[in-house]
């Protein structure tokens, strides 16, 4: 006999779907309509779908559906096949009889081909609207990036400018009188006494540049 516990399955068959649970089985067509079928009928259909296009002998289908030919009548298998055909032919799926051998299921290829073609068209061939939107988005992104770049450069210059004048505002000059002239330096950056000894004229000193003599034009500007 057929096993008491039936596995729950969900098998796609072209545009249809075979669903089976412990409580029953049904065929859901591509248009959304569902038809209840018996558990043995679901076992027959599941077995045929495991070998699409191949002939499955009658004894194997009977064993799959009822477990033994001794507990069923001679017309049980043909009746189950007829019931399945009535539903499947709505979606152009056929169960063909192979004389003296068994049955085979014929699932039209165009059902899956159309789905794949539509899917490929959607993924691989974007519409003009999608292309225009993508181009517009790319152009706007480039413009936005350029604006951010120039704005960043501008802000850097502003910060440097502010820091420079802030630093100058804290710089105090000190001048030391010589016998003839004077030497000026930034407060705290005092020149060594050896450099100023016996010097005449006007000078500016810094640790970085050393002692620089100021000419007449610089003195006039001062």
From TrEMBL:
The lineage of its organism: Bacteria, Pseudomonadati, Pseudomonadota, Gammaproteobacteria, Vibrionales. The keyword rRNA-binding does not apply. The chain crosses the membrane at residues 149-170. It comes from Vibrio owensii CAIM 1854 = LMG 25443. One of its GO terms (molecular function) is DNA binding. One of its GO terms (biological process) is phosphorelay signal transduction system. This is Transcriptional regulator. Pfam families: Trans_reg_C (PF00486). Residues 8-107 bind DNA. Residues 8-107 form the OmpR/PhoB-type domain. Keywords: DNA-binding, Membrane, Transmembrane, Transmembrane helix.
